[in-house]
Structure formats: C-alpha cells, structure tokens
C-alpha cells in the first residue's frame, strides 16, 4: 500500500518496473520509478504542450465562474494543452487561491462554450519555484481534482517561457488530501522536454 507523506504525490508506479510505460488509448508515456528506502520516486514524460494566450470573452467567462473579475487575476493567463485544452489562471497569492469558491454551473458553462477541459488556477511561483494550484473541471464531472499532473506539466511549459525550469506545486489541501507534483523542463534538439512526478511512502505491504 502506498500513501503520500505530507505534500507528496500518490505514486502510480508502485510494483512496476523501473522504466514502465503508461498506456492510454492514444499514446504511451515514458515513465521512471525508483526505490528510496521506504519510499518511491516516480516521474513520466507527458509529451509536448501547446500554449496560446487567453483573453477577452474567454477569460472573462472563466474568471467570472470563479467569482473573479478579469482585473483580479494576473495578466499572463493562457490556454495550454497536452491532449485537451485547459485555461491556466494566475491567482496573485496562495491566500486568494485558497479562498476561491467557484460557481461550478457558471464555470462549466464557460468551459463548455470555449472547448476547455477546465481551469487550473495557481498562485505565482516563489523564487524557489514553489506554487499552489487548484484544478476545477466540472465539464468532465470533476468539481475539484486532488492532484493533476498533466495540468502541472502545462504550467511548467508556460513557466519555462519566463525562465523557470523547476516547479513544485502543492494541491489537494482544500480537500484534505495534500499532494505535491514536481515538474522539470529541459531543452534538447526537439525543443522543451518536461517530466512530472512526485514521491510516495510505502506504509504497508500485502499479497495480491
């Protein structure tokens, strides 16, 4: 059995090979997993991320679904996709992020209108790359996600444009299930490559 310790990500690779493949209906993802004493560290490559700026009616509609005006958020909101688009919405502080109480009916209508998976609201990363985030996706039946690695990968791609190549994003606090997702970006001959992952602690072993 694997349980996150503190702000740690639930490990999807427990019991798998050191370099497992994650398979979906559309592609395979390259993964890595390693033991560290009583813990496991895991990461995977989520694939390329596309980015475009967000503004105007789209941003106003999604911000309004959060009870925010367009002027209440930072000016670098964007739409990011590594499969399905979602809006990355910058909130100016962790405190303001924690206080969000979105109207899920309005937010779903806004996301459906503009073809968005949902909205990943995040605080500005500090100088160490630490941030907090909340992912709301009522359009797919998820009022709020505990941990969302794909959206954190999208944020990493966005932040790399501002010179930030390492992130640690805290999620799940509001739901009583704290987790931290890490993301690193490096450049190779094909462009930016991203890895997202985290750590988990083994608290009990059992027979399958």
The major pleated sheet works out as: 13 strands, mixed
In CATH, the homologous superfamily goes by the name: Diaminopimelate Epimerase, Chain A, domain 1
Query: Taking Cα atoms only, what radius of gyration do you get, to the nearest Å?
Result: 17 Å
Low-confidence stretches: 1-17
Proportion of helical residues: 10-25%
Helix-strand pattern, N to C?
EEEEEHEEHHEEEHEEE
Kindly estimate the percentage of residues that lie in beta strands according to DSSP.
35-45%
First-to-last CA distance: 11 Å
Number of domains: 1
Region (Disordered): 1-49
Pfam families: PhzC-PhzF (PF02567)
InterPro entries: Phenazine_PhzF-like (IPR003719)
Biased composition (Basic and acidic residues): 20-29
